Structure formats: structure tokens, C-alpha cells
Backbone:
């Protein structure tokens, strides 16, 4: 794959049952954020064969919740392998103000010169930048998003143990790791919703 991934769960019950260590990590993260989330956000599709049973998400306990990966690990490769990653949204429905993505930086060691930052872009509602993904057609989420300049957004470094919590509708990408980084940047992603 163009991005190393490990899939864990579709919802909280499947995470607790199949990956108790990641479940305990999730409980700790959620508690540190005020216990306001449940793993019921937009599921992530995996860029592999849909017919491969290995990549099929476990059924959800709640039949109203769409089956799909909501807890998984991403490994960001270095510049020689992963030169770019498209600007995208985790939550496509712009009216959904409940879904969020929470990342846990799982590397035990990382340094600023190893790169791998999350880059968050503002929406460019006035079309000032002129970028509507015209150079990204066919690569991931090509949905004519109006993307603003990243210096008007935010760059978040992958500090070991850092928790990154953001609105799933936020335009973002991840920089590749540096070619001299001795490891890939690793995060565990949780697709969540605010509790009702």
C-alpha cells in the first residue's frame, strides 16, 4: 500500500473485544478529553481490494451504525516512497458538526527535522488561492474543495504521545517523513462523534 495501515475496529465493542490494549489507550485518551466522545464517526475506507476478507471491518454492535473502520493505525512513509498526500476531509458532510478525528502519535521518539507534520488548511470560500484541487484529480478526494494557503491554517508536529483532536470536516494532509528519519511516523486514528 502507499500508506502502511493496521485496522483495529468498527466501534467501541469490537475494539474492546479484539484489541484490549488499544481499547485502554482509547479510554485514557477519551477521559483526558472530558469523556465526551464515542467511536461512531465517519468510517475510513482502506485502499485495497474490497473483496479481501482481511480488510473487511467487523460488524458494529449498533445496527444503525454503518460498518467500517473507525480505529486504525497509519504509518507515514518517507519522501522517497510517499512524496505527497492529497488534501482531504475525514468527514465529507459539511453539515455534520458532531464527527471528529482524534490522532494519537505512537512513536516513542521523533524530532522536528524528521517531518511528518499534520497540515491543516482553511477553507477558501472567497476563492483567493484559486485552488480547487485542480492538480489532484484522480488522487483520493477530488471534490473541488476550495483550499486556502496553509500559512493561514495550522501545522501540528508529531510529538511522541501527542493527542491531536480536530473537526473531521477540516481540510488537511500529512507531510511525508524525512528520508533520514530512521522510522515511519505512526499514529492511531479514532473516528469519533460527540456523545448525545
Residues:
Amino acid at each position: 500500500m502507499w500508506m502502511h495501515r493496521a485496522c483495529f475496529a468498527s466501534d467501541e465493542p469490537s475494539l474492546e473485544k479484539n484489541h484490549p490494549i488499544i481499547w485502554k489507550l482509547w479510554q485514557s485518551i477519551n477521559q483526558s478529553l472530558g469523556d465526551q466522545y464515542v467511536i461512531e464517526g465517519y468510517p475510513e475506507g482502506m485502499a485495497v481490494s474490497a473483496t479481501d476478507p482481511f480488510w473487511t471491518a467487523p460488524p458494529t454492535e449498533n445496527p444503525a451504525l454503518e460498518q467500517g473502520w473507525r480505529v486504525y493505525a497509519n504509518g507515514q512513509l518517507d519522501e522517497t516512497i510517499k512524496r505527497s498526500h492529497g488534501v482531504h476531509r475525514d468527514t465529507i458532510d459539511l453539515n455534520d458538526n458532531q464527527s471528529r478525528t482524534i490522532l494519537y502519535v505512537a512513536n516513542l521518539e521523533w524530532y522536528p527535522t524528521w517531518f511528518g507534520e499534520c497540515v491543516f488548511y482553511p477553507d477558501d470560500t472567497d476563492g483567493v488561492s484559486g485552488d480547487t484541487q485542480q492538480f489532484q484529480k484522480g488522487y483520493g478526494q477530488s471534490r473541488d474543495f476550495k483550499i486556502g494557503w496553509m500559512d493561514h491554517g495550522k501545522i501540528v508536529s508529531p510529538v511522541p504521545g501527542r493527542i491531536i483532536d480536530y473537526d473531521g470536516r477540516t481540510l488537511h494532509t500529512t507531510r511525508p517523513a524525512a528520508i533520514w528519519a530512521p522510522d515511519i511516523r505512526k499514529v492511531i486514528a479514532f473516528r469519533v462523534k460527540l456523545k448525545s
User: Anything to note?
Assistant: The chain has two helices and nine strands.
